[in-house]
Specification:
The protein is of the alpha/beta class. The strands form 3 sheets. The chain has a 7-stranded mixed beta sheet with strand order 3-1-4-7-10-13-16, with no helix packed on it. The radius of gyration is 20 Å and the shape is globular.
């Protein structure tokens, strides 16, 4: 009887482990990469501003800005994405308009979740005076080799850039993060929720 129970226990363990592995593989396979195809000002929320067309946003989506242009993505919504990658000499400004939002970057995809390459810039603008919070959750990382600047339309807008893990963000040699016009208070305030 013991050996029968032992075999059943082992089978249950193998089945459980297999389920977890297949679920993890499916989540990684589900990550879609979307590349910004605009060179001026356009809405983040317009599906055709991404290649391929981003019709069904998912928490595993990889968002890429790499066209070398200076561009503004407006109407950035509260959303969780898998990765945000800025490279190729691109300067992108994310603008939330008049709505307070949290952009959570990182959902367990392998690699750096927020990356701003040398020679590139990621700017965050609260043009409608509503707080823009960017959060890197537990187990995810950011790497800044280029620059980040946080601004607001009027004085006393307290934007936030939070990481839950103490080692969640690395500012590399030559990289910078700064508060620009009208962005006040402690940018690296208390950590957001995960």
């Amino acid at each position: 009887m013991k050996s029968h129970q032992s075999v059943l226990s082992r089978l249950a363990l193998v089945a459980g482990t297999t389920f977890v592995m297949l679920t993890s593989i499916a989540a990684m396979a589900a990550a879609a990469t979307y590349t910004w195809n605009q060179t001026g000002t356009a809405s983040w929320a317009t599906s055709t501003n991404w290649t391929p067309t981003r019709t069904t946003p998912a928490t595993s989506d990889v968002m890429v800005f790499n066209n070398g242009a200076t561009t503004t993505a407006t109407s950035v919504p509260t959303q969780t994405i898998g990765q945000l990658l800025v490279s190729g000499g691109t300067t992108v400004t994310l603008d939330n308009g008049a709505t307070a939002i949290t952009l959570t970057v990182g959902s367990g995809i392998a690699g750096t979740d927020l990356s701003v390459a040398s020679g590139s810039a990621l700017n965050v603008s609260a043009s409608g005076n509503a707080v823009f919070t960017m959060n890197i959750p537990t187990g995810n990382t950011g790497s800044i080799s280029g620059s980040m600047t946080w601004t607001a339309a009027s004085l006393a807008t307290i934007n936030q850039f939070t990481t839950v893990d103490a080692s969640g963000l690395t500012i590399n040699s030559g990289g910078s993060i700064k508060q620009g016009q009208n962005s006040t208070g402690n940018l690296f305030g208390t950590a957001g929720s995960t």
